[in-house]
């Protein structure tokens, strides 16, 4: 449909998407607040019902394989720009290594997460988030990582649905690893909700790539601090070029220490397929998921 035949809301969203993409290309990072994000997702296909359902999708998460204060699920998706569609990929284990600027007790460990199921996968708001991310990064230039295949136009996206929990026994750390990168080309984080969380919880700090890995958020060097952002409202979204920035997060604090505090997020790790020699090479299949198939047009 030609833009002149669109309704005013759609035209305004297209103009907003153009501004955001220009800002992302220039600044390598954008933070989109809820009041801007929701109209965008609606024009990109999210229904009001699915937006509402997204607020509770994290209630079905499972115990995390290595972090006692976290509940999690993940799934692998393929940005197939050659065929203009997103599709679900088969289950694979997951790993992040020290070589990828991820320093934690489970660095290099092959982890197996419970899978994202139809409750999230079938949500039109999730489809719109995938499309939003594609519109932001597709075709832009960025710093390349070693051992990724930049000959292809396509990208793999590992989606994490995470709940961080703080209670009397545990302090929930959205980034226990401290200063890090995510081993990908583009990272996007979208806030779904929280319970009993203080106003100063879970601040994301952005650091120059020269910052030392594994430093806690409050131990970093001021000269490498590039700013901070805090997800507070439903669908607040942060997107950045992962190999050009590092980041850290402060903990989740409980407003009422007698009750648990929770923070629910979607994390979109997007990178090129790996080549031989990468830690994830044995776990980077491009085969479709047979029991949870999905295809979404990238238009």
UniProtKB/TrEMBL annotation:
The protein, known as: 2OG-Fe dioxygenase-domain-containing protein
Source species, domain of life: Eukaryota
UniProt-listed InterPro entries: 2OG-Fe_dioxygenase
Entry-linked Pfam families: 2OG-Fe_Oxy_2 (PF10014)
Protein's organism: Petromyces alliaceus (Aspergillus alliaceus)
Any one GO MF annotation of this record: dioxygenase activity
